[in-house]
Each structure stands twice: as structure tokens, then as C-alpha cells.
Amino acid sequence: MRLLKFFPVLMLVLGTLQAKAQRFDLKKPDNPAKCANIKEGKFFRINYPGGIWNMTIKNNIQTEYLNNGKDYIKSTLVFLDDCTYKAIVIEKTDQNNPIKVGDVFSNKITQTQDNYLKILTRIEDSQTELIYVKAKQK
User: Fold this and answer.
1) Alpha-carbon Rg of the chain, whole angstroms?
2) How far apart are CA 30 and CA 46, in angstroms?
3) pTM of the predicted protein model
């Protein structure tokens, strides 16, 4: 009986620890933010293996690769200013993915540090904060 009372508390503690482990803060952000870093390159999301998700941007075309590169979502980028842009989905391969051709994501780079970019992204009434790391060029 004690175990039944203890289990929900244990799950709550573990969930809190997991959320804190995934959090990533930029300790010394650039001032001003170096937003031009988003305009071209290969990017990864922290805490995601590259095979699950990675992205390339070139010539205002953003391609997100999923499932070890088997699927992708391609968007055209429209920059409103140096740090604010819209990503308009123009093509996708995974028909089960809820993102649709024509979806518009509004993005704002809020902070940068070295090769890290913190981005606030919105679609409809939903928003999330993402942190990308730009791969160093060879």
C-alpha cells in the first residue's frame, strides 16, 4: 500500500528532473544577437540525435530531415528583419506528419551565443522555444 502512495511522488520527481536536464540556457549571449547565423548552414537541435532531426538552410530554403533522412519538410523563408522570419511549408514527404503544405511558422531569434541560436517559433495559437546549434563548417 505504501508503494502505491510513493509511486506517483516518484514519477513527479523524475519528471521534474528530466525537464531540468533537457533545459539549456545560453550563459553569455551575444549582444546584439548574431541573427545572420540562421541564413545558411546545417543545424541540429540540442538533445536530439542528428538522425532524428537536422536541418539545412541555403538560398532561403529550409529543409528539415527526419527519420535518418528518409523524410523531409521543405520550407521557404521570408525574412521580415534580421532576427524575424516566416517559414512557409512548400513540400513534405511524411503524410502522417501533422504539418501541412501551406503552414506558416513565425520565428524570432531571441538569443545567440557562438554557434547556438535560441528561437521562439509560433504556429496558430501554439508557440515553443527551440535551441539550434549550427554545425561548424569544414
Assistant:
1) 18
2) 19
3) 0.79
